[in-house]
Structure formats: structure tokens, C-alpha cells
Amino acid sequence: MEKIGIKEIALRANVSTATVSYVLNGTRNVRPKTKERVLKVIEELNYRPNDIAKSLKSKRTNTIGVIAEDVTVFNVPEIIDGINEYAEKNDMHILLTNLRLQKRVGYDYANTDHYQKHAQDAVSNLLSKQVEGIIYIGIHPRDLTGLINTYNKPIVYTYCYAQNECSIQYNDEQASYDAIEYLVSKGHSRIAIISGLMDSIPSRLRFNGYYKALTEFQLPFDPQFIKVGDWGLNSGYHLAAELLKLQEPPTAILIMNDLMAAGALRAASEQGMVVPTDLSIVGFDNREFSAYLSPGITTMDLPLHDMGILAMKALYNRISGTNEKTEETPLCKLIERESVAGPRAALK
Amino acid sequence: MEKIGIKEIALRANVSTATVSYVLNGTRNVRPKTKERVLKVIEELNYRPNDIAKSLKSKRTNTIGVIAEDVTVFNVPEIIDGINEYAEKNDMHILLTNLRLQKRVGYDYANTDHYQKHAQDAVSNLLSKQVEGIIYIGIHPRDLTGLINTYNKPIVYTYCYAQNECSIQYNDEQASYDAIEYLVSKGHSRIAIISGLMDSIPSRLRFNGYYKALTEFQLPFDPQFIKVGDWGLNSGYHLAAELLKLQEPPTAILIMNDLMAAGALRAASEQGMVVPTDLSIVGFDNREFSAYLSPGITTMDLPLHDMGILAMKALYNRISGTNEKTEETPLCKLIERESVAGPRAALK
DNA sequence: CTGTTAGCGCGTTCAT
DNA sequence: ATGAACGCGCTAACAG
């Protein structure tokens, strides 16, 4: 099987390669009859132009690099899907690099030394392949300033950020504010919170939203109602148990991820409390499993898909030189399931 | 900022472009002093060769295309991760195409007419980009013969297959055989099965394994113990309820996915039966949520990561012309959690 | 307006 | 160690 190129087509159609190119790209008028003849040959030989050669001349690859810290972490696939949706519409292709961070360094991603070289190599490879920009997808929101250098190629971070660089993140503060507002609307006033680790940005932001809502709705602020977990199921379990043992326990708990919320569910059940009758719970993340627990966890859904779309859009604008930098920060959405009801007191 | 190329380097180092190339690739001996000088300039200007130009000449892109039917479906990310692991070791890059099938056609993927053109376009684009091969990742195991034409570029299917093409799949029959063997080892003999849709390959294969195990272990074969679900939680719920209402209900149920198993769990609980004391359940898929239910579902873990590795390996061998076609079909692994115990009768 | 010739992009590699 | 052809498609310049 001979490899066919533009000149093979030209030969068989009795025209020059230039004409073939013009037909292919509609760059110039070609007499209909000639055009038809050329197209017929192209069709017959099933010719497809070589994008590599094209790119070399045009200096455009229509390709961006996506660096995912770990595609197996729950937030990543949906973000990639969003990137795809926007990329496809603009005929952009995606060169995917998977850092496999989870498998490489476990949860020790705070210390970037362990993978900085690895990340930079990924960038370098992508640049060699002439990507027109890069999207970096984190597995935990944090500051990645200085991790990588893209030598002036545009980059957009999402689910993480870097100073002086574009990043797409959702609105954490608003999310927990909304969650509290929802609980208040159900009649709760004694609302506790189980936070993630306090060195985490989302934890701080979500706490801000909690605190702001407490203030605005003039709810009692009880330091005993604030627990700091480590994101793991067990910590949710233990901290919820502590809250329930309080003299005057909360009637609702906002928990900063579904994993800890699942732990809380277990704790409640072991203490003979029924969720939501005796205790209401709102989680975070809308992890798949939160729908299958009994009761299903009412939770804040992260706008991952939108983040992907917005990240790609922002990058595309930068690539195209469009100066409209309309970076939005999308909102979380409350998914109502079965873990919230009015407080017991209200039922009496 | 000037764009630097090999000739810029040559100029500054007072050598020819050929020499620079030889230094860069170690393709030929270069006098150490010259070499050093060249390397210094490269370092200073932070030069990186243009892979596009390289590819044009060498006709190798070190890039494969991965077509995922839908990256947001549970089995896909882990397969991609496996592909990455092997690809990275062999310096191969991945151009990812996401068909977004789930969002496009829902569960109507049996009728390929709806997306055949879309899939073929994806292949064509990838071929234009000169990928050296393609891996196609399905979202449901099925025959995709004739869906796409890769014009003799090597392709490997995984989590689906096509006639006369290489495909990597796990061993379904063995998996359900193993599950039954495990239940038997726990003392069960009245073992029911809730199957997925019967037009599905895995359903048939898993049923084969079930039947084979029944025969080998000389267990009673009761047609009433065979239920056919539709993979959804509700069907698991209803079918399990039916099984439990039997005169002589089974002491264990093998269920062909965790979703239906979750439904079964709910049915059991509503009938006041305790899992695993009164009823043992083994699921399939090892979906994330199966670990968080109470009790945690004992389930067959799919070797997704290995499938990714093997798919990439098989493709790599084809690309390299290595003739060792050692396609293995990896095995599922039983994940023991809390939904299995000895049968009630055995406890009496 | 339609078609052709020839040089270019950026590294690689053969012949000198 | 070097000059120059080459890979494949694009496009400026030119011709009819």
C-alpha cells in the first residue's frame, strides 16, 4: 500500500499540487470541472491531508495540552468532559498527560518537590509537540505558583491556581452560604460544621460562607459546633459522634465533603438517631456514592463540567488573542436528597 | 521574543545545523569540545526541538489516539490510567478523543447508527494527525464490528470488541465462577443470580460461569433462582424482593453489578432481613459506592487498570512490528467486604 | 480568473 | 564536520 500525498493526487488528476491544495482548502477559485476531477481522485484514494506537514508550515496545531494531576480522582473526568465539549466545537484537539499523582505521591501533594520535575517534564514535552496552550487540572484546590514554567505559552489552571495566571474555580464561599441558607429555610438554627483540614483553601472559603450566613441570619455562633476533620470518612464519623454527644447537640451539620458525611451518617445511626428526622446533614461534592446511601445525602454539587468548559474557553480566548477575559467562577448547586428535614423541635 | 530553531543554535555555536542535530540525538560522534559548545548554547536559549518538524521527516509521531466512548463513565478513567502507565514508559503520547456517548445517546448505544459517523470522524481526525495507532475504550462490552475503519492503522479495542481485531477484555466467566466458588466455600448451596440484560455479552458469560460452578459443585439448579434485571438499581430491588418471597429463598445472591446489588440491599432491609446474616450478596464492578454502603458490598473488582496496560502493550507491539501477540485476558478479583457470611442454616 | 512553478517550515541524514 | 536534499502541504509570484 503506497502512501499517498498531495502530489499523488495532483498526478492522477492531471493538475498541480497547488490546485489540489486550493480545492482542499477553498483558498482560491478553481474551475468546477477541475475541482470535481480532483475531488473524485481524493475520494477514490481516500486521501487525507497530513496535519503534521500542515502544522509545520502554518505553525498551528489546533492542539492543546491537558495535564491532569490524576485522571482517576473523582473531579477530573467531568472537567475533561467539559474541556472536550468546548474544544470539539472549536476543532481543537487534546494531548492528554496524566501525572498519576495520587499513585505517585499519595496525599503528599503539598510538597511539590516530589513531582515538580515530573510536572515540568510534562510541560516540556507538550511544548515540543507545539501545543498552543495548556490546561492544568488539579486534584485538590491549592496554590501551584512556581510549579511549572510554560515559557509564555498560555496556561489555564482549574481546580487549583497559580499567582498571576488564569484559573477557573468554583465559588466555595457561596456554596456553603447557600447550604446554610437552605438549612435555615428548613427551620434549623443550631447548625454545626465539620470542616476539612484547615490548611486547605476550600476549607477556609467554606468556613467563611458558613460564618457569613450565621451572621446574616443571626444564628447563635457556638465554637463547639466547629469541628475540623481530615476529609476522611473516619474523621466524619468521630466528629459527628462528638457533636451528637453535646449537651445541646446541633439539629443540622454542614459537612465539607461527602466522605465525611458518610461517616457522620454511620455515627448517627450507631447512636440510634435517624437522619433526617433527628439530624439533618448536608455534604459537599456530590460524589456518586452519596446518592446510594440510605438516606441519600443532600449535597452541594461541584460545577465540574462548567469548569472544564470555562477553562477551555479562557484558554481559547488567550490563544486567539481575543481579549475578552470573562473568567466566571461558576456556582455549586444543591442536590436535594433525603438527609435534610426540619429540626425535631419544629415538629413538636 | 524570537522563535529559535536549530539553525539559530548552529549560528551561535559556529557549527552547521547537522552537527547540532547530531549532538541533540547522539546520532553520530561529535568532538567533545564542539559538543560542549553546542550544548551550552542550547541551554542558554532554552532550545527545544520542534517535534512537528521531526515527525514530518521521521514519519513517527510517538503518539497514539485514544477514543473513549465517554470519559465520565466509571470504567474509563482507570483504563486510561493504565494506558498512560505503559505509554509513559515507552515515551508515547496520547491524543484523547471523548465521544461523550452517554450524554449524546444515553443508553441507546446498541443502535450504532446514532454515532457511527461521529466515531468515524474521530478516527479520521486522529489519522490526519498521524497517530501510530488507536485504542478504543467502550462503555459497555459489545461487538462494534464495522463501526469504524482505521485504514490499516493498528487498533486495539478494550471493554468492547470487534471481529478480526485485537481486543482486551477481562474474564467474565471466570469471575462469576470464582464468586460462586467463594460462596460455596462459605457454606452456601442455595445461590440465586440476578443477571443484567440478556442481550449483553457479560451477562451471558457471567451466567456461564454461574452455571458451570453450579454443575461442578453439584449444587441444585433452580430456575426460580434466575432473575434477569436491566442493570438498574430498581430492578435489583424488585428482583431481590421476588427471590426473598420464594417458599425456599436462596441464602446468597450473585448480582451482576453493584447498582443492582445496592437495590437488593435495600429490598432485604425492607423485608427485615439482615445482610449478611440472613442473606449474602456478591456484586460486580467494585464501584466506589459499594464500599460505603452498610454493609459494604463484597464484589468482583474489574481489572480496568490492567486492561489499559495490556491494551497499550498490545498496540505498542503492533506498532513496533513485534510479533509477540501475547494478549492476556486479565482476571477479576474478589473484594471481600461485609455482605457475605455463612448461610443461616449453617449457624443453626 | 484559473492553473503552474518553486520556495518555505524545521530537523534529519547522506554524500562529500 | 558540513552542505544540501528531503518530508508534505501551503502559498507567493507568475503565466496564460
From TrEMBL, chains A, B:
SMART domains: HTH_LACI. It comes from the Bacteria. Residues 4-58 form the HTH lacI-type domain. One of its GO terms (molecular function) is DNA-binding transcription factor activity. CDD domains: HTH_LacI, PBP1_sucrose_transcription_regulator. It holds the Pfam family LacI. Keywords: DNA-binding, Repressor, Transcription, Transcription regulation. This is Transcriptional regulator, LacI family.
